[in-house]
Amino acid sequence: MVRHLVAWNFGDGFTEEQNKSNAEAIKRELENLINLIDGIMSIKVFTDHLETSDSDILLDSVFVDEEALKNYATHPEHVRVGKEFV
């Protein structure tokens, strides 16, 4: 089992409303990858920003092994989501 954590922030130049909409879309798209990519045991996106955090979004995913994580990293659907939203 391999856990993969990624935290990131919204880009500059977006309104709070746009950031909220983008966060919802990112959450939906990333969490759906469990249905499209083999080897993902769980995938959860957190968009509830804590005042004590310096990140806007957190991805917490678990894979069956390192090979599954490598497959996820280069899978066309994951790459598409990354290009579209990050």
Could you explain the architecture of this structure?
42% of the residues lie in helices and 24% in strands. It has helices spanning 16-32, 66-74, 76-85, and strands spanning 2-8, 40-46, 57-63. The chain has a 3-stranded antiparallel sheet, covered by helices on one side. The two termini are 26 Å apart.
- Whole-number radius of gyration? 13 Å
**Could you say what the CATH architecture is?**
2-Layer Sandwich
Q: What percentage of the residues does DSSP assign to strands (E)?
A: 15-25%
The structural domain count equals: 1
| Number of helices, counting only DSSP H or I runs of 4 residues or more | 3
User: Helix and strand string, N-terminal first?
Assistant: EHEEHH
Brief sketch in words of this structure:
By secondary structure, this protein is an alpha+beta fold.
Question: What characteristics describe this protein?
Answer:
86 residues, alpha+beta
Question: Would you spell out the secondary-structure blueprint of this structure?
Answer:
Blueprint: E1 2-8, H1 16-32, E2 40-46, E3 57-63, H2 66-74, H3 76-85
Antiparallel strand pairs: 1-3, 2-3
